Every structure is written in C-alpha cells, then in structure tokens.
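Translate sequence into structure tokens.
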Amino acid sequence: MKLGFVTCVQLGYSCMEAIYDGGGELEVVLTLKDEKAKNKSGRVYLDEFCNSKGIELYKIDHVNDDFVNQLIQKYDLDWLFIIGWSQIANRRLLDSPNKGVLGMHPTLLPIGRGRAAIPWAIIKDLNKTGVTLFKLDEGVDTGPILSQLEIPLTQKTTATDLYNKVDIAHVQLIKNVIPQILKDSVQLKIQDDNRATVWEGRKPEDGLISLKFSRDKAERLIRATTRPYPGAFIHINGNKYIIWSAQLVSKRTSGLCIQFPDGFLECLDWEVE
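Result follows.
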C-alpha cells in the first residue's frame, strides 16, 4: 500500500511518526515552501525526518497545483493523508490517489461538522467528543468514516486540556488504523446525515461575557476559549479583562469576582488589556 502525506505543522509530523510506529512507511511527503507561513502556529520543517527515512520531500505553494497531481501519479499513491493543512483540496486532488484522500476532524462525526470544534464541544456542555479519521469528499466533513476515538469531557475540561487530548488522539488513531490500511481491510462507514450538526466558525469577539449570562454559561465560555484561543473577556469600568480561568463561588471574594443573576464567578487567572 503506497502512502503519501501533506502537512506543515507539528500535529501532522506526529502523525507521520505514528505511521512508522504502526509499521507503515511513506513514499512521498509534501509541505509548504520554507518561506511560506513562517508564523503559522505549530509550523515545522520536515527535512530531517524525511532524510532519515529516505522519503522524497517536495515543497509546494498549493496542494491543488498541477505539480502535486503529477507527483501523486508518479508515486502511484493509494492513500494521501492531509492533516494540519489549511488549503482545501479540489475534486481533481481527491480523485488522484487510487483509493482517496484521508483527513482528520476533531469531533465524532457527523456531530460537529465545520469549525471551532474544541471550543464548541465545551460551550455545548457535551459529555464526550473525539477525533474522526475519514475519507475526504467535496462536502464539509461529510466523507465516509474509517475510524473514531472518543474523548470524555467533564465540567472541568478546558480548551487547553482538550487541545492536547485531541492531538494525542490523532496520533493514537493513526497507530490503530495503519495496520488495517496496509492490509487493505479498512471498512468505510457512510455518515448518517440525519444525525449531522454543523458548528459555525468563531471570532475573538465571540468571547464576550455578558452579565446576563448564567454563571455556568460564563464559566463554560472561559474554559472553552482559554489558551491557545484568544480568551473570554468582559468590560469593567472601561477596561477589558481577559479571563483565562475562573471558578464558581457561593459569595463575593476579594480580587476579580463577577456577579451574575444566579451567583458569583471568581476569576483565578486574568489580565487587563
């Protein structure tokens, strides 16, 4: 089974390592040109890894370029992984590998198609989320599923916690599935559109805390938008307070303590912008 990989971030690199840990190997890897996306969060350079494994590495401008399609044909790829890549694959690219293109989404599809998966899982007060490995199609997170891993959520889960657990789940999912891929024994499961939900993108201003919120809603918003996200915030006496963590309390405490209709929220970590 001939595999290729497209990534430019640490998460994708970790998944590449997981392919080798699971007994697989890569024919070719594609990444962004060195001068592109230098400030992209998690940006990594793959030269050393590819050299050590004897993998051909190509640096590209866009995944839909003619050159990429030619590479897929040259290496006669069965599956192409695209993980940690912001460019959207077009129909030609999706059809180029013999079996298709594989991607990951940090929810239990068909729940949570779309964007901002980590914050929404906490804001919506779900008791679990997860990561899905699926075959990409032209829809938004609508392709058939290869495998999933569940991640339990609690009333204390923060975006920081969940972000890390999602990364770990990506790697574990690759390790779990690679033996099936190599044996050509994967079974694709069509998503049930009747169960599908779509989560919209979020902007930094969506972190605004209203004093009309319940304190539980405010506390969830704080947990959902804490680091590595921009943070929840509130305006007090003309100042903008970004709140990174808080806890429910029965009465007003010293320091930054916010009163809501149903009680108080004590801020534990905050800064004034």
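Note: Residues 159-182 form the longest helix (24 residues).
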